[in-house]
Write a structure and sequence with these properties.
Layout: H1 12-20, H2 28-38, E1 43-46, H3 53-65, E2 75-78, H4 82-95, E3 103-106, H5 112-120, E4 125-128, H6 130-138, E5 149-152, H7 155-160, H8 164-173, E6 179-184, H9 189-198, E7 203-206, E8 217-223, H10 229-237, E9 244-248, H11 252-264, E10 269-272, H12 278-290, E11 295-298, E12 311-316, H13 323-330, E13 340-346, H14 351-361, E14 367-369, E15 390-391
Parallel strand pairs: 1-6, 1-7, 2-4, 2-5, 3-4, 5-6, 8-13, 8-14, 9-11, 9-12, 10-11, 12-13, 14-15
């Protein structure tokens, strides 16, 4: 039986906003988490990237804050990056367009004064990165005595980025009687420890296996020497007629170098990483969302703010050292029931890293090579080391029928 948003107990103001946003039916994480949150329970939610976690916590918050005092901080949402903060604020305003609630984003990399003025004018929901929020708390700009709900979003990434001490300091300043919601793509021992510290008698919601990639993702592994990776990628991207392409690199300098090379090859490209100014980062994201820039090259941390449903191809230009990062990356395509391609360029020094990824996702992926760009060392699979890769011309034209929700 199909579950509707109305059956979850949402009020008419939110239902009409969801209809205008084009949301027809709730996702599994929303079906499980929203009723629990509406009932006031603490919740730990674990699901793949792109499964609707943001709406799963925002809709109950907006409904709870619909009635009651105005202009006082009643909900705090902690996120790891400024891009994600902006994204959550944009969603809060879209879902709550018919409600008299004010939401403000607080993050580093920009001046304190505009944020200080925004807080002084009165705010109902604050979406913040931990470090900048502590700056405002230390200056007396944030009063949390009437806080009702705390959300820890992308908890695994916050801990990966070293925010655990900041998050713990923030927890020490908040009322103990609050409701707390923690959402994370993966649940590690560190996330478990944070949940025990922040939540009380929580309900756990887990959608799918923790290391599962989306069903609609087609994985393509291309073995190639590191020195010619960018040439191979430039050639393969020529086949891409439409659709957005998100490319992940391990370093900021690598992102810039690859973007310059692809631009010289005739592709519309922007780079996104932490050394860019806020204006440059915002421009790159906006161009990618609007489709004026089809190819975005990003580091993993910077890409946390990229919330675009119809990304046709995710490229692992570098195989990540942490296998779980692969799952995060490829979760950017095949969202909301669409089809997508995860293309990985794998050099000889990355053979074992890719084997670790395959062990995590429980699949062995076929190795392919591009004629004229065969690697100097034949790649092996985890089960048959030394078996040569198939020599084919890999196609980056999978069936990418997208269904947007």
């Amino acid at each position: 039986m199909t579950v509707s948003f109305e059956s979850l107990g949402l009020v008419p103001e939110l239902l009409s906003a969801l209809e205008r946003e084009g949301y027809a039916t709730p996702t599994p994480i929303q079906v499980e988490a929203i009723p629990l949150a509406l009932a006031g329970r603490d919740v730990v939610g674990s699901a793949q990237t792109g499964t609707g976690k943001t709406a799963a916590f925002l809709l109950p918050i907006l409904q709870r804050l619909k009635d009651g005092p105005r202009g006082v901080l009643r909900a705090l949402i902690l996120v790891p990056t400024r891009e994600l903060a902006e994204q959550v604020v944009e969603r809060a305003r879209a879902y709550g367009r018919d409600l008299p609630l004010r939401t403000v984003a607080i993050y580093g990399g920009v001046g304190l004064e505009p944020q200080t003025r925004a807080l002084a004018q009165g705010v109902d929901i604050v979406v913040a990165t931990p470090g900048r929020l502590l700056d405002h708390i230390g200056r007396g700009h944030v009063r949390s005595g009437r806080l009702e709900v705390l959300v820890l979003d992308e908890a695994d990434r916050m801990l990966d980025m070293g925010f655990a001490p900041d998050v713990n300091r923030i927890l020490d300043t908040l009322p103990g009687s609050r409701q707390t919601l923690l959402f994370s793509a993966t649940i590690s021992s560190d996330v478990d420890r944070l949940a025990r510290r922040a939540l009380q008698e929580h309900a756990a919601v887990e959608i799918g296996r923790r290391a599962q990639t989306a069903d609609g993702v087609h994985h393509l592994l291309v073995a190639v020497d590191k020195t010619v990776k960018r040439d191979v990628l430039a050639q393969m991207l020529v086949e891409v007629v439409g659709g957005r392409v998100l490319i992940f690199t391990r370093t900021k300098h690598g992102a810039d170098r690859l973007a310059r090379h692809l631009r010289r090859s005739g592709h519309e490209v922007a780079a996104l990483h932490g050394d860019k100014t806020q204006g440059a980062r915002s421009a790159a994201l906006e161009g990618f969302r609007e489709g004026t820039t089809r190819v975005l090259v990003a580091t993993d941390l910077a890409a946390r703010g990229v919330d675009v449903d119809d990304i046709a191809i995710v490229v692992n230009y570098d195989v990540p050292a942490d296998p779980e990062v692969y799952v995060h990356r490829v979760g950017r395509t095949a969202r909301a029931g669409a089809k997508g391609l995860a293309l990985t360029l794998m050099s000889p020094d990355e053979w074992l890293l890719m084997a670790d990824v395959e062990a995590l996702i429980g699949r062995t992926l076929p190795r392919e090579t591009v004629p004229g760009f065969e690697p100097s060392v034949a790649p092996f699979t985890p089960r048959q080391r030394g078996e040569p890769a198939r020599q084919t011309k890999p196609s980056v034209r999978p069936r990418l029928g997208a269904r947007r929700r």
